[in-house]
Amino acid sequence: MSEARLSVVIPTYNRKEILRRTLRAYRSQSPQREIVEILVVDDGSTDGTDSTVAECSEGSVVVPIRYLRQEKKGAAAARNFGIREARGELVLFGDDDIIPGPDLVTEHLAWHTKYPDPSVCVLGHVAWSPEVHPTPFMEWLGMDGVLFGFRSLVPEGKVDFRFFYSCNISVKIDFLIKNGTFDEDFLGCGFEDIELGYRLQKKGARVLYNPKAVGYHYKRMSFADACRSAE
Predict the structure, then answer these.
(1) Contact assessment for residue 169 and residue 83, using Cβ atoms and an 8 Å cutoff
(2) Which CATH number goes with the domain that contains 106?
(3) Residue 1 maps to a domain
(4) Residue 205 sits in which domain range?
(5) The overall pTM is greater than 0.90
C-alpha cells in the first residue's frame, strides 16, 4: 500500500456538541489529502445533529464530511452503514466523543504502510481529555479497569480480540468485508466490537498497538456511571 487512503466512520446519537469538537479535530489532521472522507452515521438523533454536521462541512473542501442517517438501530448497524458507504482502502473507526490528537491519522496511516498485510489492524490509544478533569477512578478505569486495559499492552505488540476497541482502530476494508462486519443484533453500545474482533481473529486478523495514535475521550464517568454501564 504505497498511498494509504482512509475513510473515517463515526456513529453518533444525540451528542451534537461533542461531535462538533470531534469533527473540527479531524479537519485539523495533518495528512488531509490522505483522508478520503469522514462519514458521520446518525443513529436516529433528535437534537439537530444534522445541522451540526452541515455546519462543520462548510468550507471542508479537502476532506468531505458525509452525513448518513438511519432509524435507531444501534452503533453496530451504524458502523456497518459506514462500511458499506466507505470509499477508502482503510476504514478508521472512531466515536463521537473521541477527539483525535493531532497525529492520530498520521500514525494509523504510517503503520498500515509499514505493515501492508491485509490482515493487520492498528489499535490506537485512548486517554481521557484533560478538559474533563479525570479522577483517579477514571484513570484506573481507562488503563486497568473494565473500560480499557491499555496499561497491559506493549507498543507495536500484537493484542488479542479483547482489545478490538472500535473507538480508535483501523482496518483494511477488503479484509473486513471479506471476513465479517459488526453483528447488528447488538442493539446497545458495548461488546459488539469485541465480538467482531473475536471473529476476525479466527480469520487471521492481527491487531497491533500503536500508542502514538491518540484519541481523547471527552466524557466524565463517576463510579455510579461505571456500575450502570457494567450492569
Answers:
(1) no
(2) 3.90.550.10
(3) no
(4) 6-230
(5) yes
